[in-house]
Write a structure and sequence with these properties.
This protein is mainly α. Helix content is 82%, strand content 0%.
Length: 424
């Protein structure tokens, strides 16, 4: 294996590590209940902290994709990791002075911007190093993001909560230091391949003159205004909206079901159960990115999205008819497997449909679907929880019904799409 081929695996691994750091944001539901209990904020108020982080993640990723060619992946990735850590530091101070608005600014806006800048760089960079394994390698890199919640909910947060005797201000402060210590060096490792780089044993596909001519004339504006881009954005958004409802509230949801099944369970036991679901489902979220990304190399990108959307519709319908917390946990894990799958398949789908040179910009813009989904999904779920606070037996079915509707619309849109390049 030559030096360039060795370098590309190092960059893929460091990109995955950076995504692991950024993906700790998905453990938010671990903090949802303790923060609500300590500061008296409602589900909707507290969930806005997470929703704003996802909103600014997508918006900053769109900007990051546009400026990535100019500033390079090293600057964007390391600045992203720094800002995410600063977001935690500001959040710690916000809790110290009991300021929800400062929490929104710190974790939601500044932390969210860091997430977006840090997220887009390793995905776009790794895909350039691996033209021979597009779905596999982008799935591997974004798998790190899905596994971030596992690291936070089962290792980092419990360790720090025990160390600080539950002092959330100190917990967030130490989290900030740990994330920056890992994320910034990983970000500094990002770099583009040398000009003309071709992996060992790989022969680039030969394009005919007509297709190459169409690609040369393809612009960002034409790409973003195409019906194909709109359809891809919609299926991405709808899959995200349905899945992210559980990322933000899965811990309170399973705790509610356990409390109904056994009213004698202690608060500590319920919290452990909620944290365990976050950890296990985050594993599925991470593996789903890797698994579905690899499958898309075999059966096609849009075929994968159709499977993801249609199978989840059945799962959400099943959720309406179960009150068993263990069955609920299994179904949530499958939803997160498919949620992650969308992130694993979308980068390679963009590479197939649009000009590879436009990939960072188009990929950044399509991540705005994550921004909007990060508001629609969690806020819809939080609203349902607050609205039916006096009828808790209605919370689950209404939430699952909303998810079923979102996924059904996504499936219909997916039937209008194909794997063909926009230049064909």
């Amino acid at each position: 294996m030559n030096k360039a081929n060795t370098s590309r695996w190092f960059i893929a691994i460091m990109g995955t590590l950076l995504q692991l750091v950024l993906g700790t944001v998905y453990a938010w539901s671990f903090f949802q209940k303790p923060i609500m209990a300590e500061y008296g904020w409602s589900n909707v108020q507290t969930m806005w902290i997470f929703s704003l982080a996802i909103l600014f993640l997508g918006l900053s990723a769109a900007v990051g994709g546009m400026i990535l060619p100019k500033y390079g992946p090293r600057k964007l990735a390391s600045i992203g990791a720094l800002l995410y850590g600063i977001g935690y530091l500001i959040s710690a101070y916000a809790m110290y002075i009991n300021s929800l608005s400062l929490f929104y600014i710190g974790f939601g806006i500044i932390g969210g911007i860091g997430l977006g800048l840090g997220y887009v760089a390793p995905v776009a960079t790794a895909s350039k190093w691996f033209p021979d394994k597009k779905g596999f390698i982008t799935g591997m890199v974004v798998m790190g993001f899905g596994l971030g919640a596992l690291a936070m909910s089962k290792l980092i947060a419990p360790l720090l909560i025990n160390f600080t005797d539950g002092n959330m201000v100190l917990v967030f402060f130490y989290i900030a230091i740990a994330l920056m210590a890992i994320g910034i060096p990983a970000g500094l490792s990002m770099k583009n391949p040398p000009v003309g780089f071709v992996p060992e044993g790989y022969s680039p596909p030969v394009k005919n003159i007509t297709t190459q001519g169409h690609e040369d004339r393809l612009t960002v504006k034409k790409s973003l205004l195409s019906t194909k881009f709109l359809g891809m954005w919609l299926i991405f958004f709808l899959n995200i909206s349905a899945g992210i409802m559980f990322i933000g509230l899965q811990s309170p949801m399973i705790q509610d079901l356990l409390r109904i099944q056994d009213a004698t369970m202690s608060t500590e036991a319920l919290a452990v159960a909620g944290g365990s679901l976050i950890a296990i489902s985050s594993l599925f979220n991470g593996v789903g990115r890797f698994l579905w990304g690899g499958i898309s190399d075999k059966i096609g990108r849009i075929q994968v999205f159709r499977l993801i959307l249609s199978s989840q519709i059945l799962v959400f319908i099943l959720m309406m008819f179960t009150s068993n917390p263990w069955i609920f946990g299994v179904l949530v894990c499958y939803v997160l497997l498919c949620y992650g799958g969308g992130f694993g398949a979308m980068p390679s789908y963009i590479l197939d449909v649009f000009h590879a040179k436009l990939m960072p910009i188009i990929y950044g813009v399509i991540l705005t679907a994550w921004s909007i989904g990060g508001i629609v999904g969690p806020q819809l779920a939080a609203f349902i929880r607050d609205f039916y606070a006096n009828s808790p037996e209605m919370i689950g079915p209404r939430t699952y019904m909303a998810g079923t509707i979102l996924l059904s619309i996504g499936l219909l849109v997916s039937l209008t799409l194909s794997n063909k390049s926009i230049t064909e």
